[in-house]
Amino acid sequence: HSKPSSQTSYQTNPMTKPAAIGRHHSILIFLLLTMAAATATATPSIEDINTTKHKPKKVHCKEKGYTECRKKSLLCPASCPRTCTVDCKSCTAVCGSTVKQPIDSPATPTGAAKVVKCKNTKYPGCYYKEYTCPASCPRTCDVDCVTCTPVCTCDKPGAVCQDPRFIGGDGRRFYFHGKKDRDFCLVTDPNLHINGHFIGKRNQTMSRDFTWVQGIGILFDNHQIYVGAKKTAIWDDNVDRVELTVDGKPIYLPESEGSSWSSDSITITRNHNTNDVIIEVEGNFRIKAVVVPITHDDSMVHKYGITNDDCFAHLDLSFKF
After folding, report:
1. pTM here?
2. Which pairing describes strands 149-152 and 159-161: parallel, antiparallel, or unpaired?
3. Can you spell out the DSSP letters for 274-300?
């Protein structure tokens, strides 16, 4: 076989709305609808954080070998004020549960950790301060401007990440394996339908595929939006691998943080110079899509069997309805 070009895009059609949805599809729809409904009711607003009911919980590192961190009391982020744990390696409070790792566990994904900033001017004490992403998510984090701490994007309610893991609005986690090279219905509503295209790789010692969300197709009103990760051999953070179309027409954004494109109620904005965009439709949804690779370390830890001809670039997604 010839080596695939790093510039080749996946040929997918996630816009196609299935005539009938099978059992696996129905399960996934239920999970995402639960996510959408719970986000509106279960996730506390910023204003609620200051009330007694949602006062951030104090948490501590309980793992041996992290002496300095064990001495500290940390506050849960605003996005999960009562349900967080401590990532002892980076000594930060993170949403959801963490997997206990030995101190000499394999390194985090290759490359320097991303630097992020608080971009909410309502928090002048934190606004535009720089923070380094935690060790547990060196490439995909945001700043919680309320507590002024970096938070893993994939640990927040409404996230669809990794292979793949769904987090509902109430913080519950769901895992869906799916099948490679297939399209699945993620969300269906009278005026919103979202399909996801899965890519994957079969581990010969297992009876299922490892799968990741390569792209999503969004249907609403009379519009169609597609966002996906371009097929990539060798990953470079400085090379943009996002593919965007609106109503079938390619969208090209200048590679600079804050650059945007808008039409009617649709706005697409770069959250970073490359590989990180926010798609927002006023009064309907806000989706953050980050293109990430499967690194050598990821492959070694999870036994994905990734080779140099394809790093299986895929999307880490954050939904808010």
Report:
1. 0.65
2. unpaired
3. SSEEEEEETTTEEEEEEEE---HHHHH
- In angstroms, the CA 171 to CA 41 distance is 12
Question: Which residues, 6 or more positions from 112, have their beta carbon under 8 angstroms from its beta carbon?
Answer: 138
Q: What is the pLDDT of residues 196-212, one digit of tens each?
A: 999 998 877 777 889 99
How far is C-alpha 47 from the chain's CA centre?
25
C-alpha–C-alpha distance, residues 37 and 275, integer Å? 29
Q: Decide: helix, strand or coil at residue 218.
A: strand
- What does the pLDDT look like over 89-107, one tens digit per residue? 778 888 764 444 333 333 3
| Pairwise CA distance, residues 160 & 187, whole Å | 12
Question: What is the Cα 53 distance to its own chain's centre?
Answer: 28
Per-position b or e across 95-107, b if 16+ CB within 10 A of its CB:
bbebeeeeeeeee
3-state DSSP assignment of residue 23? helix
Residue 22, class by beta-carbon neighbours within 10 Å (0-12 exposed, 13-18 middle, 19+ buried)? Answer: exposed
Q: What is the 3-state secondary structure (H, E, C) of 27-65?
A: HHHHHHHHHHHHHHHHCCCHHHHCCCCCCCCEECCCCCC
Contact 161, 175 (CB under 8 A): no
Q: Which of 27, 127, 38 is nearest to 319 (CA)?
A: 38
Q: How far apart are CA 287 and CA 267, in angstroms?
A: 11
Handedness of CA 247, 268, 144, 45 (dihedral sign): negative
- Rounded Cα–Cα distance for residues 150 and 158 (Å): 17
Tell how strand 223-229 and strand 92-95 pair up: unpaired
Q: What single-letter amino acid sits at 3? A: K
- Looking from the CA of 153 toward its CB, the CA atoms found within 13 Å total 25
3 state DSSP class of 67: helix
**Both tokens assigned to 67:** 């002496």
Which CA distances in Å does 88 have to 65, 110, 193, 225? 9, 20, 40, 40
